[in-house]
Every structure is written in C-alpha cells, then in structure tokens.
Amino acid sequence: MKFRNSALRRASIVLALGLWGCASSDAAWVHENLEHTENFHAGTSVLETPGFPDTGPHHATLRATARTRGSRIGADIELAVRAEFPDYSFLDRVSFSSGRAFPLTVEKREVEDCGTTDPSLCNVHEFVSVKLSREFLKAKRATGFSAKLWGRRDSVVINVPPQYIEGLLARMENRTPESPSQGGTAGAVPAAKAP
To answer: Fewer CB within 10 A of the end CB, N or C, for the chain?
Structure first.
C-alpha cells in the first residue's frame, strides 16, 4: 500500500509541475520574467526575455535595447542567439519564411573551456544577433516565427514563440499582455515583410 501511495504522490507532483510549466509559458509569465539591466554611463536600458524552449543546445532570446542619450535615441529589438556547434559554423546570414537572406551581427565566437588542450573535443559558441523591426514583431505576436541562421558549415533554426513576442512588446508599451484568445489586436494585424 505504501508503494502505491508514493507512486500516486509522485504522479500528482509530476502532473502539477507539468501544468505549472504550461501556465508559466504564457505572455504574462514572459512579461513578468523579463530581465532588466541599465547602464547609466552608456545611457542604455535592456529588456531580455527568458530563453526560448525547445532550442536544443542553442540559447535564444528577444532583446530590446533602449538608448536615452546620444545620436541614436530610441529602441533596437534583436533576436539574440548563442549557437553551439562541435566546430565553427561561421554564421553570417539569416532567412525568414520569405527565404530571402539578411545579414546578421556576429558578436563573438569562442571555444568553451572544456579542460583539454585539444580544441577538437570542445564545443564552439557563436554569439549572433538579428535586428527586428517593431512592425514585424507586432505582425508576428499572434503566431510567432522561425528564423534560419546560416553559416559556411552548418545552420540552425530558431522558433520564436508568440508569447515571448507579446510579453516583450507589452512591457515596452507599458500595458498588460494580451493572449490570442482575448480577441485583441494581436490576431488582426496584417502580415508583415521580414525585418
């Protein structure tokens, strides 16, 4: 009898954690869990979403950088990706559903510290970013989008979930995030060209 009760208890805990995981991935959860950093000397304020789910060994976020001083006052929104490969892929372009390739920004490339002198046994991290227009994100906040990052040797596809877009835009616009089922403007925005 003890075994059955403990198995039922474990099953109920797993179910509860699964339901919490589903509930925590909505736009309101993203809105509340944005990382906010400020650099007063540079006059910048950065909002960054949590990492997207289901990206394998890669890590991807949406990042908005607001500048309050200088000649470029305003906000830039980027898809920021840390791609992990067994060797350099030299990521240098991105394509969206249209198939047209756009350049991306290479922030840095590095070999992880894997405790060996043989670099062929270590993974390579390529940190890249893609500038996105606010109009493009507004058009995609109900559906999300996919971006394929290309390099000379390899590529990676990143799926950007709609709730991450809506959570970031809601914080930038100082409003409560909408869900697609609320029937707000999120579903009524016409399709947009790639950024």
So the answer is: N
